[in-house]
Amino acid sequence: MTRFLAIRFLRGLLTLFLVLSFAFVILRSTGDPAMLIMSADAPPEALEAFRKGWGLDAPLWQQYLGYFKNLLEGNFGYSMRDKSPAMELVLARIPATLSLAVPAFILKLVIGISAGVFAALHRNSWIDRLLISLSIAGYTMPSFVLGLVLVLVFAVNLGWLPSGGDTTWQHAILPIVTLSLGGAAVLARFTRSAMLEVMGQPYIRTASAKGLVWRRVVLDHAMPNAAIPTLTLIGFMVGSLIAGAVVVESVFSWPGVGRLLVTSVANRDLAVVQSLLLLVATTMVTANLLVDALYGWIDPRVRSGQEARGKAL
Amino acid sequence: MPLVIKICAVWVALVLLIALSADLIAPYSYSQLDLLARLTPPVFFGGSTAHWLGTDELGRDVLSRLIFSVRISLLVAFISTLLSAVVGVLMGFAAAHFRGWVEQLVLTLVDFQASMPFMIIALAVLAFFGNTLPLFIALMGFYGWERSARISRGLTIAANEQGYAAAVYDLGASPWRVYILHILPNIASTLIVSVTLTFPEVILLESGLSFLGLGVQPPMTSLGNMVGYGREYLQTAPWILLAPSLFIVITTFSVSMLGDWLRDRLDPTLN
Amino acid sequence: MTPLLQVQNLAKHYAVRIPDGLSRRKATLRAVDRISFCLSAGQTLGLVGESGCGKTTTARLVLGLMSATQGQVLFEGQSVAATRDATWRALRQRMQMVYQNPLGALDRRLPVITQVLEPLRIHDRGDPHEHMEQAQALMASLGLAKSLWWRYPHELSGGQRQRVVLSRALILKPSLLVCDEPVSALDVSIQAQVINLLQDVQELMGVAYLFISHDLKVVRQVSDQVAVMYLGQIVEQAPPEQLFSEPLHPYSQALVSAIPSLWNRQQKTKIVLQGEPPNPLSLQSGCVFQQRCPYAEARCREQSPMLTPLSSERQVACHMLAQKPSDQNAVVESCS
């Protein structure tokens, strides 16, 4: 098992490396940031000075090495717009995003799993069909549409909740709901099929034949086993939370990491985009590692698996 | 076929028709200004039949813009999905056929693609390569290839090792023959299902990016684009963004339902 | 006359790593370990043994589907290489394989007749317009009714599918057919039909068979010579009547005694082998059978016995038996 995790960890590092190299290549090899930040009619000497200052006129491979050297020293570059260290800028925005993402994640889990289990237990009834249709509607609706509709209904027409900004806790309600509903729909669907598959297994019938109360059967036997494949979804859910945050923060003008990404991409602010990419990649790699570890710990089959692998001579 | 599925199929056919005949059925050009008729509401909300779905802030007809947006969005989605399927299948075949380092390379790329949210990668690439339509479509073509790759690799390995493909190789067939005449037809149905599920996701992705202003650029119009620009008028003229929004939702819903139904039919019995 | 197939000192070894506590120990898995045999045109050599003794690996080595670690395979005097190039592909017309699982060997999406004539297309043999007729004639002669020709594999019974696989293998008129457990998956009554069919085909077309099975009764019926394999080595080779009436190697004795039959009245007790079932990973030096052999001596642990001829038709690999008075100058007939 440690071997398994060690391999995963190395793969994670490789992914990070690839992401960073990828970022470097595309960000530096296209366009001329100098022309963008300083206006097009600035004198050429000023443009040149700008380029030198940012290290943009050294050959590409040299920039690449310098880039990684900088990263290892903790130097993530400076935002071209407001001259402050890029990573600081990014890190400063994390709390704002977390205040949306964490409640959304919890809400997703609660709604998704309970809806899925409920639907599985009342299979083929009208509740089940309703929930399935709702869940399909949930994940086919883009988050920006959902967000805007919610704003239209609750903010514009009913006036119950504010439509943008982040000053009070009421401001957070609509963004959190928007962020969680799409993922909840996917989770509900998945949980439902996992539960159905588990419930069809012989050991469930054995458990209820033993005289166990139905609720105990579901809680002690069905759900833990259905949880195993559902775990793999969690890694995916973290990814979709990040992607969702980008859109939702833009819809609700929420000053988080997602909104920063959109604006820095539009402004071609290289260092900030890289720092954000690194942050996202690290988060994803960590999340996947955790899921793998959890998986190995929970599923005894994975834990005790041993293989002899051969190579033909 | 259950009634819901029939309705979805009809809607999808309708959307295809709109996309193909946009030039013929749109009452106006999508960039035609009518400054005297700015922000007029749709016909049953106080407007006139001159503009069935109202007009936007520059007096452009929302209905016409909607029709042309459908064409663009669908075009992007189709070509991208096709690209991603082709790339994915070829990579999967390469991995299964050559094994060794080729397979490891493909698996690493698949892992990489699957572990990062595509929107983030897309954002980074888009801003820095600019935003011409061919480039955008090529970028969208990288969405979801890893699924086709996984499917084709898995099924090909199974066929090669124990199954029908191994037998045909033993007869002396060349790899070309085996892949084209035997393996491809056998994996086609699984691939088709995966593709029908990718298609609506591409639509959502494209509209999300266009909404953020980073996707399809003006003067071209796409569904997400319209929602993005209509957002400022959410309070005063909500129809500008509601029409395309509704369209996105119904279309992706229909295609997803069809894909699910297709999967249920193709999966258990035949293969 | 050169025999059709000559296998000389053929071996297939794998380097494996076995989990041993936290690390992995290196070991060699000897799937096939220095075997030699010959097969003449139109004859059948039966290969028997338990699962895991190396029969299927031998089959794949003979056909060049797998590369050998040592030794060589000579088919019609030419060496068979395992590289899948044009020469290898052309050789497929002369040697083919029949599989244990006919459903897995056929493409579910194509009608069976298309699959039967596919080899003709692959190798571009003859006039394309005649392919269909050839396939139809062959299928008919193998007992497949016309109504079955356009059906799909999953619509046929096990016995019918095996006939399809057989037709496909025979349509190019090969001289060697390697049959890997061809009847094991079939009902006993169907087994008899397929066996008879194989024998008819051999008479008609002069095909040689390498017939691999774990079922001694079947092997007895079809073979001209039988080779008994144990852990990758051939321990005894003899014509079936001699082997089954008087098995010499301790392993053969145990195998034969286990056959429930009316003919074994002399042996009233079954020989039950002691010791662990064979594990190809943990081989020590010496005879492969030493751990379960009731006659094992010191030299059996030191030196591995060679397959030595005892008469013109029999060979045994056993220290104890090799000392029996025998015709040392006898050359085993099937290999001239």
Average per-residue pLDDT of chain A, rounded, comes to 77
Task: Indicate the radius of gyration of chain A in whole angstroms.
Answer: 25 Å
First CA to last CA of chain B: what distance? 21 Å
Task: Give me the strand/helix succession of chain B.
Answer: HHHHHHHHHHH
Taking all residues together, what is the mean pLDDT of chain B?
85
Structural class of chain B: mainly alpha
What structural class do you assign from the helix and strand content of chain A?
Answer: mainly alpha
DSSP helical segment count of chain B: 11
CATH topology of the domain at 92-304 in chain A: MetI-like fold
Indicate the low-confidence ranges of chain B by residue numbers. none
Q: What is the percentage of strand-forming residues of chain A?
A: under 5%
Please give the largest β-sheet of chain A: none
Return residue spans of chain A where pLDDT drops below 50 for at least 5 consecutive residues.
Answer: 305-311
Main sheet summary of chain B:
none
Q: What is the multimeric organization of the chains shown?
A: heterotrimer
Q: Can you name the CATH architecture of the domain at 92-304 in chain A?
A: Orthogonal Bundle
SS field, number of helical segments of chain A: 13
The helix content of chain B, as a percent range, equals: over 70%
Write the SSE topology.
The complex is a heterotrimer of chains A (313), B (271) and C (336).
Chain A: H1 2-29, H2 33-37, H3 44-54, H4 60-72, H5 86-121, H6 126-140, H7 143-157, H8 170-199, H9 202-209, H10 214-251, H11 257-267, H12 270-298, H13 300-303, E1 309-312
Chain B: H1 3-20, H2 22-25, H3 62-98, H4 100-115, H5 118-129, H6 133-140, H7 145-162, H8 164-170, H9 175-211, H10 223-230, H11 239-266
Helix pairs in contact in B: 1-3, 1-11, 3-4, 3-6, 3-7, 3-9, 3-10, 4-7, 5-6, 7-8, 7-9, 8-9, 9-10, 9-11, 10-11
Chain C: E1 5-20, E2 23-39, E3 44-48, H1 55-62, E4 70-75, E5 78-79, H2 86-91, E6 95-98, H3 102-105, H4 112-122, H5 128-141, H6 158-170, E7 176-180, H7 188-205, E8 208-213, H8 216-222, E9 225-230, E10 233-238, H9 240-245, H10 250-257, H11 298-302, E11 308-309, E12 315-316, H12 319-322
Helix pairs in contact in C: 4-5, 4-6
